Amino acid sequence: MTSRTLSMAVLAVAACTAHSVLAQERPGLLSAGDYADGTLGAAQQPARMDVQPGSVYRVGKWPTYTADLAPGKGHDAVMGNCSMCHSVTYITMQPPLPAGTWKAEVHKMIAVMGAPIQPATEEEIVAYLQEHYTPSTRKP
Ligand code: HEC
């Protein structure tokens, strides 16, 4: 052991001693080893994985496909206007939405998200979504 590592070890021992004294003086101050075995809060984490050399990981399928939307009047308007910022899969990802919700949703895309869609096209899109994607009209 060099004199430098020796003096560092002495310092470390001194620091530990000082810390124990401090912990005794200030009840409630926690340091390593003071924690109870049980969980301190509600958060539970999965057990650590036992990683072995040669372990194989698999990544789930990422939904990068573009959904096939129902054919019909308004289909092209939706494909052209609703895929500028995200995939039209956002439409089929939703549960079947009531007609009024689709109207509000399309309007939100324009008023909040900034979709450059003219009022006539907005109506056509809303009509299309209401005709194919509500609880009573959506096909599986
Ligand atoms: C100007 C960009 C833009 C356009 C164009 C656009 N959206 Fe969105 N859309 C967004 C953003 C931003 C979000 C929310 C962020 C996210 O979840 O990725 C979103 C989210 C959605 C969602 C998920 C639910 C929600 O409200 O967050 C749906 C459904 C949706 N858009 C439908 C549409 C439809 C239908 C159209 C065509 C009328 C459209 N979008 C056009 C930007 C846009």
Summarize the model shown.
By secondary structure, the chain is mostly helical.
Mind explaining what this structure looks like?
With 140 residues, the protein is an all-alpha fold. Among the domains are: 1-31; 75-132, Cytochrome Bc1 Complex, Chain D, domain 2 (Orthogonal Bundle), CATH 1.10.760. 44% of the residues lie in helices and 0% in strands. The longest helix has 23 residues, at 3-25. Heme C binds next to helix 3 and helix 4.
Secondary structure: elements and pairs:
Layout: H1 3-25, H2 75-81, H3 89-93, H4 99-111, H5 119-132
The structure holds heme C.
Structural class: mainly alpha
Question: What is the name of the CATH class of the domain at 75-132?
Answer: Mainly Alpha
Shape: elongated
For CATH, the homologous superfamily of the domain at 75-132 is named as Cytochrome c-like domain
Beginning-to-end CA distance, first to last residue: 74 Å
Specify the CATH architecture of the domain at 75-132: Orthogonal Bundle
